[in-house]
Amino acid sequence: MLEKHRQTLILLLSVLIIAGSGVSLGFGIAELSKSSSPLQTSGFEKVAPSDLGTAKPQPSPININAAPAMDLESLPGIGSVIAQRIIDYRKKNGPFKTIAEIQNVSGIGSVTYAKLKDQVTVE
C-alpha cells in the first residue's frame, strides 16, 4: 500500500514539474516577444541566399604511402582493420607506386577502390 502511494506521489510530482516547466517556458517566450530592444542587426552584411554557395570544400587527397591509420579510416569503406592492412602492406612491400596498387590489399576490391580512388594520392 505504501509503495502504491509512493508511486502516485512520484507521478504527481513529475507531472507538476513538467507542467511548471512548460508554463515557465511559455512565459519566457512571451516576455521575449514583448522586448523593446531589437536583436543586433547592424554590422552584418546582407547576403542573398544564392550567394551562400552549396558546394562543400574538397578535402585534400590522402597520401596512402604516409597516412596514419586514423587518416586512412576516413576513407569510404576503410575501417580500422583494413587501415592496418594498408600500413602492413606498405611496410612489407614499400610505398605504393600507383593508386590502383591499393587493390592488392586484402579487403579492397573494385567497389571500394572506385569509392576512394579520387580521395587518395601516392607521393
Task: Please name the defining characteristics of this protein.
single chain, 123 residues, mainly alpha, DNA polymerase, domain 1, two-stranded parallel sheet
Q: What does this molecule look like?
A:
With 123 residues, this protein is mostly helical. The chain has two domains: 35 residues; 60 residues, Tex RuvX-like domain-like (DNA polymerase, domain 1, Orthogonal Bundle), CATH 1.10.150. Helices cover 47% and strands 3% of the residues. It contains four helices and two strands, in the order H-E-H-H-H-E. It has a two-stranded parallel ribbon. The model has no long low-confidence stretch (mean pLDDT 80).
Estimated share of beta-strand residues: under 5%
Portion in helices: 40-55%
Rg value = 29 Å
Per CATH, the architecture of the largest domain is Orthogonal Bundle
Q: What name is given to the CATH topology of the largest domain? A: DNA polymerase, domain 1
For the secondary structure, the number of strands is: 2
CATH superfamily of the largest domain: Tex RuvX-like domain-like
Strand order of the largest sheet: 1-2
**Helix count from the secondary structure assignment:** 4
When the domains are counted, the total is: 2
The secondary-structure element order is HEHHHE
Q: Given the helix and strand composition, which structural class is it? A: mainly alpha
